[in-house]
Amino acid sequence: MTAADDATSQPRPVRLREALGGVPAYAPGRPAPEIAGMTTFKVSSNENPYPPLPGVLEIVAAAARTMNRYPDMAVTELTQALADFLGVPHDHITTGTGSSGVLTQLVTATCDAGDEIVYAWRSFELYPIVTALAGAVGVPVPLTADHRHDLDAMADAITDRTRLVIVCSPNNPTGPSVHSDELEAFLAKVPPHVLVVLDEAYLEFVRDPDTPDALDVYRRHSNVAVLRTFSKAYGLAGLRVGYAVAPAEVATALRKTALPFGVSRIAEDAAVASLGLFAELDERVEAIVAERERVAQGLAAQGWRLPDTQANFIYFPLGEHCTELAEACRDAGLVVRQYGDDGVRVTIAEPEANSRLLELAAGLRERLQPDD
Ligand SMILES: *Cc1c(COP(=O)(O)O)cnc(C)c1O
Fold first, then answer.
1. Could you read off the pLDDT of 189-225 as tens digits, one per residue?
2. Residue 333: CA atoms inside 13 Å, Cβ hemisphere, count?
3. CB of 124 closer than 6 angstroms to any ligand 1 atom
4. I need a surface site. Which of 19, 218, 258, 259 has the fewest CB within 10 A?
């Protein structure tokens, strides 16, 4: 007889880790709604609106023929291709299932229960999740009034328990990149046993000349790792592949914490091929950056005061007016990402979607962000 047969006995609940109680659920970008007679756009996940780079689909199709086999556990070809591309030793590179996967590896490699992870807030919503999953303690440090990292406050937030500091540049969801001088001043204050991760998911879109060269920073500091992804500029979000560049002993630890065979043959081949397509990548990134500038300048001309953006999205910090903007966007066929009463993030997407945003924003500016 099973417990279910016996109406009087209550099955005892499965014991789960207490840490899970503190884990916020990841809010995925919603799909675009169907609205009769209207093309709708998902501008909620910072995806690339373009199809894969030329030839990559064919390479993926060919790699798919080997799906009965496990991939190369060491991800040798991609690791070597990245080492050549970046000019770093191959044993300083770890790949993973998107940079989200590598971020989880970073936390697993550095934090025991109760250890602290310092990050800016608001920033990437995965940071508090991976922190809580590890039983670590998140130390969120508020952004400055202009929605940038407050690196002085982040340095002050470091304690004996800090094992990891995450710097997101450009910051998702607000947009600005950190600057070289402030980052150097910050790193000078971080104890050498604390690992600093520079999350550069949007690196390719950056045009702010004060942004540091993260690889140069990593070469000069023994406690800096750089986190990058093929999901955004390269347009391979669905294949799940990202990487970290880290000091050799950190990279070795990261490989130990990787999900075995996490990077598929398909993802590896697509990433290697994409990495070689400099001109084609550049063309698409330039098109997205040009659209970003068109939207940012158009919004500024309408009177909007918004944070600088170096990524493929625009952030509207509208407080109590966030829902109004998100609903107006939805009615216009744009699904955006709303962060409660903090702000609304809109991905730079197809020109038609971007124009629609400009159009609807024009009529809302005075009410949602009155002149003071
Ligand atoms: C999108 C994003 C990532 C990575 O995504 P993956 O698809 O897991 O590589 C990492 N960091 C930030 C800040 C992002 O916005």
1. 999 999 999 999 999 999 999 999 999 999 999 999 9
2. 16
3. yes
4. 259
